[in-house]
Write a structure and sequence with these properties.
The structure holds 2 protein chains of 2 kinds. By secondary structure, chain A is an all-alpha fold. Chain A folds into 2 domains: about 45 residues, no CATH class; about 130 residues, Four Helix Bundle (Hemerythrin (Met), subunit A), CATH 1.20.120. In chain A, about 70% of the residues lie in helices and about 0% in strands. Chain A has 8 helices and no strands. In chain A, helix 6 runs antiparallel to helix 7, helix 6 packs parallel to helix 8 and helix 7 runs antiparallel to helix 8. Chain A is elongated, with a radius of gyration of 19 Å. By secondary structure, chain B is mainly beta. Helix content of chain B is about 0%, strand content about 60%. Chain B contains no helices and 25 strands. In chain B, strand 6 and strand 7 form a beta hairpin. The chains are: A mainly alpha, B mainly beta. At the A-B interface, helix 4, helix 7 and helix 8 of A face strand 7 and strand 9 of B.
Chain lengths: ~200, ~300
């Protein structure tokens, strides 16, 4: 089987032929790193769907937001289907390349320009959500002090800058799997901080 | 569905049914029974939260309520106790509340703060802590730790079955831990000061990453830094296979092995086995533009 990482996206979409799906699942059982990458991809797509306000139960922030005297709920507007689709497509960019830089992956099923566009769309959604959440946190009536809001804003900007630098690096070294991983990690971190901020906006 | 065994206990007296905030500096003192291995959740936006394990099946809550806070709410069901500092609505000017909490040693904990610092000692269950800017300090007693902050520092020392620490700009320090370590930061510093690890996933974007530790048999370590400097310190008698890849940063290795340099420009890679016997562990180090140094202890 050629590098299975090129089939991650198709596997998640359930679009692999039966034989290829079975072969992919054998690889999954054999290769814990591939399993991790699949889990990351699934988590990223699920996370994009989860973005609006209500966070997964395991997180502590909704507990804080929910149980510390809920006076008002700020609803942040997200375009869910577009976001989920963009996340899934962008995931091709994050995961299609091989973990081992010596082992070049086949081209992902989505063209680079399409994947790039999807990643841009995801970024645009995050940027819009960030503005709305920060506006909600800064509004009169928020229990958060301005210093905390500034910390959240500043750190989201740090993540944005870091992601820009990683993308620039990927243009210089497009097959660098380590760069793909750190980009994925930053994307996940950005999502977590934004989700926390959205939960805090309800306090 | 959550079964509530008790009504809410207001540990701070309230005037006119709680309509007015408690006085500044009001002492907090309450004790509730708890299961020996139950879950305890604690929420406090600002101030401090200090938690210590003890050998009693009860939870003791002491401390001082911040000016403007309404009280401390303690809610208990069969297997969970929730302790939260209650704030009035539309109030940004609430002073810090300091909590000192003793819990049964085998409890698991979930702690959430915004700017409150968190300190945990002697608790053997799983520990989950999240904060925006508070510092997190944990002395482990064998359970897993999951700590996240935006800008607050995370300091973990002692025995853990697994450590997961993540920040955006806060520093992460891990001392003499064991087992698995997953640490990630965007611009903070990662400093691992000793310990024996089987699984390591350490990732930094621009902060310095210093890792001193010993791989256990069969260990699998992955250390990545985008642009910050990376220093890996290994024992002199280690048996490992080491892969290092640096795109444009410098690379230095005390253990020898042939550095492969590109024809043009900086960077390089190294794939070598260190030690006299069969490699007992795999270590990979990746950096884009940061320097990498592998140092013999």
């Amino acid at each position: 089987m050629s590098d299975p990482r090129g089939r991650l996206h198709d596997y998640v979409n359930d679009s692999l032929p039966a034989a290829e799906r079975a072969a992919f699942e054998r690889e999954l059982a054999r290769d814990p790193r591939l399993r991790e990458e699949l889990d990351d991809l699934l988590a990223l797509v699920a996370a994009a769907r989860d973005l609006p306000g209500v966070a997964p139960a395991r997180d502590l922030w909704p507990g804080i937001a929910g149980r510390i005297r809920r006076r008002r709920i700020v609803r942040v507007r997200f375009v869910l289907p577009a976001l989920a689709a963009a996340a899934a497509a962008a995931a091709v960019v994050f995961f299609a390349l091989p973990a081992d830089v010596e082992d070049r992956a086949p081209a992902p099923s989505m063209s680079p320009s399409t994947a790039r566009g999807a990643a841009d769309s995801l970024d645009a959604e995050f940027s819009r959500s960030t503005r709305e959440v920060l506006a909600a946190l800064s509004r009169d009536g928020s229990s958060l002090d301005p210093e905390t809001v500034a910390i959240i804003e500043e750190n989201l900007q740090k993540i944005e800058r870091a992601m820009g630098e990683i993308r620039a690096a990927l243009e210089r070294d497009p097959n660098n799997a380590a760069l793909q991983r750190v980009l994925t990690a930053e994307n996940r971190r950005r999502h977590q901080v934004l989700k926390h901020a959205a939960a805090l906006s309800a306090i | 569905m959550r079964l509530r065994e008790t009504a809410v206990l207001w540990v701070v007296y309230q005037i006119l049914g709680g309509a007015l905030p408690a006085r500044a500096g009001t002492p907090i003192e309450e004790t509730v029974s708890a299961s020996p291995d139950g879950h305890v959740r604690i929420d406090n936006l600002s101030g401090t939260v200090r938690i210590e394990g003890w050998d009693r099946d009860e939870i003791s809550i002491t401390g001082t309520l911040g000016d403007g806070a309404e009280g401390v709410d303690v809610d208990r069901d069969e297997n969970e106790v929730v302790i939260e500092v209650v704030l009035p609505s539309r109030s940004r000017n609430v002073d810090a509340t300091d909590l000192e909490i003793r819990v049964p040693r085998r409890s698991s904990l979930g702690v959430g703060t915004v700017s409150a610092g968190v300190e945990i000692l002697g608790v053997e269950g799983s520990l989950e802590i999240e904060t925006v800017s508070g510092t997190i300090g944990v002395h482990g007693s064998g359970g897993p730790l999951e700590a996240r902050s935006v800008s607050g520092a995370i300091d973990a020392a002692g025995e853990f079955s697994r450590v997961e620490a993540e920040t955006v700009s806060g520093d992460i320090v891990v001392e003499d831990a064991r087992g698995a370590l997953v640490a990630g930061t965007t611009s903070g510093e990662i400093d691992v000061r000793g310990g024996v690890f089987d699984e390591v996933r350490c990732s930094s974007l621009s902060g310095p990453l210093r890792f001193e530790g010993t791989p256990s048999d069969g260990a699998d370590w992955e250390i990545e830094n985008f642009s910050g400097p990376t220093l890996l310190v290994l024992p002199g008698d280690v048996n490992v296979h080491l892969d290092v890849e640096v795109f444009s940063g410098s690379l230095r290795n005390d253990f020898g092995g042939e550095l492969r340099r590109p024809e043009h420009g900086p960077g390089g890679s190294l794939s070598t086995t260190i030690g006299s016997g069969d490699p007992e562990a795999e270590i990979s180090v990746n950096s884009f533009s940061g320097s990498v140094e592998i140092q013999r202890k």
